[in-house]
Design goal:
The structure is a homodimer. With about 230 residues, the first copy, chain A, is mainly alpha-helical. In chain A, about 70% of the residues lie in helices and about 0% in strands. The structure holds a DNA duplex (18 and 18 nucleotides).
DNA sequence: GTCTATATGACGATAGAC
DNA sequence: GTCTATCGTCATATAGAC
């Protein structure tokens, strides 16, 4: 009899927190990540700015929750694609192009989140370790993916998977950094930098894939170098 | 007799404008591009905030001048390196690594400027065409460079130079976007993403260089001898 | 012409009434 | 849990001293 109202109150509180974040994400999408203001959140919710402090101790706490939300959303999208579409793609090129497409599409369609996640547009704000955790998990997932591909003989064996991941993130973030700043109104399908993906993936694949027709020669020459 | 005081006054005014921009750039370097405030500029200059409006009609005008300054500084650095160091490098790989190094070094050592130039951290601010002009000129310069390398037989002839430039800027901006957001305290020499440059350049060069085993080798070596 | 003094409204944040 | 009142700071604007 005493726990039921508490649960309901906590559920109601959680719903309000979610509503704050929904409204905040909408404002960020319109004004840019640094254009968020507590007054505007309160205005759209029909309350006064001080009432927001019941749910968040500061504006940075709102940013931190948004960061965690964005990172989790991206991780979900990647993991979901990993389990469905990408599982079917057997060649190195096809898998890479599919994975890059999923990542870049999310970034282009959530420019405010990707601005908050990958750049540092808000002065004085840095994500907490908890908010950063899904991003670290995504990095580990990517490295594990490349290690798997290496074991399956699709990736060169003479480089650590961490290096492959590092260069892969540079390529991906290069596209997601050029597209919104140079041509923010282009969609995923029409974006001129998004259209660079097939070439960039082919470039990456040619460099890091295990040479097929010359596999024996490649191993022999690398062995000779020792 | 009447022009002399006017010239001196205009020179004094120009000096004040330069001082405003010096101070503003220092604040941006400390606080991030969006952390600039007119009050802080005035405080450091020992004047009152309204006095700044004598030299700049708005805060966005200060940002616009900073954008123009940063773009011009980058263009100067690239053009200078183009005329001196890079002129000596004859192979495709060596030239690319040198050019990428100059660009990335400038970006890492001027994080606030590069944030303002390549991302859109300030809500509501977009550079004017005049401020953007050096950036356009740099893009044209880069495309011209790749067209030259194509004529000298060092770059594949089956792709337009604009495509080579597009993929080149993705690589470069990928490094300059990852380095300050993921490891802002690392220098040009220790930066883990800066250290990816040799691999990324080799990847790019292997994809876009004219295959050596064809007749292009004769043309390339003749061009190198000039 | 250039500055100081002053005013306005928005911002993030806090204290306390109900 | 939401409000009003308030604080200090911000960008911006105008009036007026010199």
């Amino acid at each position: 009899m005493t726990t039921a109202p508490i649960d309901r109150r906590q559920r109601r509180r959680q719903e309000t927190i979610e509503e704050v974040l929904d409204v905040a994400a909408a404002i960020m999408a319109e004004q840019g990540a640094a254009g968020l203001s507590l007054g505007e959140i309160a205005r759209r919710m029909g309350i006064r700015p001080p009432s927001l402090y019941v749910y968040f101790p500061s504006k940075h706490a709102v940013y931190d929750a948004l960061f965690a939300r964005g990172a989790q959303s991206l991780l979900d999208v990647i993991q979901d694609a990993d389990r469905t579409d990408l599982e079917k793609l057997t060649t190195f090129d096809a898998f890479l192009l599919g994975a890059a497409g999923v990542f870049v599409r999310w970034s282009v369609e959530h420019p405010a989140y990707s601005q908050l996640l990958f750049w540092r547009p808000v002065p004085g704000f840095a994500p907490s370790p908890e908010a950063y955790r899904p991003a670290v998990e995504l990095l580990g997932l990517t490295t594990q993916r490349f290690a798997d591909l290496q074991h399956r003989g699709l990736v060169r064996r003479d480089v650590p998977p961490e290096q492959v991941t590092r260069d892969w993130t540079v390529l991906s973030s290069g596209v997601t950094s050029q597209q919104p700043s140079n041509a923010p109104d282009e969609s995923f399908d029409t974006g001129r930098f998004v259209q660079a993906l097939p070439d960039l993936v082919a470039m990456f694949a040619r460099y890091y894939s295990e040479p097929r027709s010359t596999a024996a020669r490649g191993r022999a020459s690398r062995a000779d170098q020792r």
